[in-house]
Specification:
Largest sheet: 2 strands, antiparallel
Number of domains: 2
Structural class: alpha+beta
Bound molecules: zinc ion
Shape: extended
Order of helices and strands: EEEEHHH
Oligomer: single chain
Radius of gyration: 23 Å
Distance between the termini: 58 Å
Strand content: 15-25%
Number of strands: 4
Number of helices: 3
Length: about 100
Amino acid sequence: MTTKKCSKCKLEKPLTEFSIVKHTRKTGNVKLYPSSWCKQCASDHINNWQKKPENRAKITAYRKAWVAANKDKIAAIQKRCYLKRKEELAVIKAKITEDKTQ
Ligand SMILES: [Zn+2]
């Protein structure tokens, strides 16, 4: 198995511990390569950034803007979830009725 050294924690880790970065050049050529930080370091970095109070406001503002810009998308997701749940409940109800009749 090939390994790579993380540029943040400086540990040698297997390639499966690194996210794959997709880079599209102006020519349209796509290059895939492992990230310079391992998944653990990247995750720790994001978690630390999100915990800072000054960034909480940024996250809240971004989410509010995203929700306002994607109302149709959210409605479609909610409808899909509602219909899926409705089907699941119908199966459960049918099973309960079946059990009572026996
Ligand atoms: Zn690392």
